[in-house]
Amino acid sequence: MASSRTTVRVVVAGDRGTGKSSLIAAAASESFPECIQPLLPPTRLAPDFYPDGVPVVIIDTSSSLENRGRLAEELKRADAVVLTYACDQPATLDHLSNFWLHELRRLEVKVPVIVVGCKLDLRDERHSLSLEQVMAPIMRQFREIETCIECSAANLVQVPEVFYYAQKAVLHPTAPLFDQETQALKPRCVRALKRIFILCDHDMDGALNDTELNEFQVKCFNAPLQPAEIVGVKRVVQEQLPDGVNELGLTLTGFLFLHALFIEKGRLETTWTVLRKFGYDDDIKLRGDLLAVPSKKAPDQSVELTGEAVEFLKGVFSLFDNDKDGALRHSELEDLFSTAPESPWDEAPYKEAAERTLLGGISLNSFLSQWAFMTLRDPARSLANLIYIGYSCDPASALRVTSRRLADRKKQQTDRNVFQCFVFGPKNAGKSALLKSFLGRPISDSYTSTTEDHYAVNDVDQLVGTKKTLILREIPEDGVKKLLSNKESLAACDVAVFVYDSSDEYSLKRTSELLLEVARQGEESGFGVPSLLIAAKDDLNSYPMAIKDSAKISQDVRIGAPIHLSVKERDLNSIFIRIVNAATHPHLSVPETEIGRTKKHYRQLVNRSLVLVSVGTAVAVVGLAAYRAYAARKNSAN
Question: What was the pLDDT predicted at 305?
């Protein structure tokens, strides 16, 4: 199966007089040009020129100083670069390693490089070293060199091969599959091939029997293996890797060994064909067209896992919980994601977002909460990882789009299972401590200012017996302005909390300012959110006017009184249940500014006037109809 590319653009560069133009002309015409212009126009090799059926466009370049700007532009647009030197001019090879390869790095041209020695027919054979001797030290220094080749345009020796290797390096690149330094398959390639092996191991006995091998061969290459060929394949593996074959068939170790062998022998297209047949792209990730992610029609919608996907994940959790202790240890979690390109939770914002057991494991509830978080934040990533770990149902059955938050507010209820809460507050108010308490983690005595968004996710048991997933997103004070610069920033928010240090008068003042900023944004954008005021650090003595001042702030914006809590003394005052309850009643506790109330009152007056006008119009129409009926009866009577 070929790459999805429709063309391969190859740029030829190198010192003047190294044979660039002659090489291109000889490849296109299959003859040596006696007279050739200094710089050729773009040259196209037809799709049927090489077996992959993808046309190659070759760009000739000038190495003169006045054309350096144009050269740099062409190199940056290249899919592959052919660097030339002249076999009869050793200085051009030195310049290639001392200038050209460094120039590609300076320009950040990160594409395969083919080094080509032109004018092979003119080389002095008396003082020649083998190509391998000459290029080995250069290739060790510059890993971007895919291959090296010598050719003669005059004698038409290995001319087509130059652009074949360039095309092959683009369509079937080595770098994603194989580490030249360690001479081993790269981790992402191993993970993809492991998933393919598991998908082909229909009887799940840990080996591919002859039938399964044949089905794999037909699926990937549209041709079965003959019995003698299967025996031959197994023999090759067993001779070099005894545990690559057992009495049941080809093991995973043997399957991986075969692909490493293909790559070492230059048959990269074999492994790429297999990967692409199973839906992988050039980055060894599932192609986007295989991920049926439901689209949101409005910014205040979100994406959640369906019940079917949740049940699948519960089964996966149980399967990989080898010691049946109700938690996945790091090694068990790594094993679970061993068929994904990498573990999706090894980096921010997922790495520290979920609650962990004392031994560092993750419980089923935390596992499902983490999936809910990933689904809300990045639905495509979530769906891809579901498929990587074995979700075989229709991908469209895994995710669902919620109703709009505005619609929920009008209905005064919501069917969401996952709520996102924005946590606002000034520095040192207790925001991070609140997130840590949500995950059951101890708080630090020393203060460290938060400079970027942090997340905490967990499930919350409601008083009525149902569970909801709550995602707390801590917004640093310095990040509020940037957040609110996006007019739709509150569309993804189900509820907001405003945390202040109850012992600090300035903290409350700054929190009230943040509350008003967010309230104004909600009124202007139409994405107002239920809001709670949290008086943190209740274990400290509050300043004299604290209760009166905080009560006035709540009353001014018409939200509930502040909720007092102390993370230090573990008195959380059911705060997380309260947050979820506010989110499940989206029509309540939405703050109003004075301007917002005035506009709301004006709209109500206008609407009332329109109602009165419509009623008056209706009465007039009815009266007119009655009069016409009366007049008609009167005329008929006369």
Answer: 98
What are the structure tokens assigned to 32, written together? 């040596």
Beta-sheet strand order (sheet of 249-251): 207-208, 249-251, 245-246
Strands (E), 74-229: 80-86, 113-118, 145-150, 178-179, 184-185, 207-208
Q: From residue 386, how far is each of 305, 313, 392 by CA, in Å? A: 10, 8, 9
Best CA proximity match to 496, nearest among 486, 504, 484: 484
- Residues 310, 315, 318, 320, CA torsion sign: negative
Query: Over the stretch 131-160, which tens digit does the pLDDT of each residue have?
Result: 888 888 999 899 899 999 999 999 999 999
In angstroms, what CA-CA distances link 520 with 8, 537, 636? 53, 28, 66
Q: DSSP 3-state assignment of 180?
A: coil
What strand order describes the sheet that includes 454-461? 454-461, 467-474, 418-424, 495-501, 531-536, 563-564
Task: Judge contact between 178 and 263, C-beta under 8 A.
Answer: yes
Whole-angstrom Cα distance, residue 427 to residue 415?
35
Contact 339, 389 (CB under 8 A): yes
- The residues facing 178 across adjacent strands are 185
232 is written with which tokens? Answer: 């031959």
Q: What are phi and psi of 328, to 5 degrees?
A: -95, 115
Helix axes 505-525, 546-557, angle to 10 degrees: 0
Residues β-bridged to residue 9: 57
Give me the residues of the chain with pLDDT under 50, please. Answer: none
Residues 6+ apart with CB under 8 A from 263: 174, 177, 178, 185, 271
CA 278 – CA 271 distance, rounded (Å): 11
Residue type at 88?
D
Residue 627: what pLDDT?
Answer: 57
Peptide bond before 349: cis, by omega within 30 degrees of 0?
Answer: yes
State the distance between the two ends of the chain, measured CA to CA, in whole angstroms: 93
Give the containing element (helix H, strand E) for 167.
helix 159-171
Are 496 and 531 in contact, with CB atoms under 8 Å apart? yes
Listed in order, strand segments (DSSP E) in 40-194 are: 43-45, 56-60, 80-86, 113-118, 145-150, 178-179, 184-185
CB 418 within 8 A of CB 471: yes
How far is residue 424's CA from residue 553's CA, in Å, rounded to a whole number? 15
Q: What's the pLDDT score for residue 148?
A: 94
Edge-to-edge strand list for the sheet holding 113-118 = 43-45, 56-60, 8-14, 80-86, 113-118, 145-150
- Map tokens 């596992």 to a residue: 367
* CA atoms of 289 and 266, how far apart (whole Å): 30
DSSP letters of 517-563?
Answer: HHHHHHHHHT----EEEEEE-TTSPPPTTHHHHHHHHHHHHT-PPPE
Burial of 451 (0-12, 13-18, 19+ CB in 10 A): exposed
H helices present in 177-306, as ranges: 187-200, 210-221, 227-240, 252-264, 268-277
pTM of the model: 0.86
Distance of CA 536 to the CA centre of its chain: 36
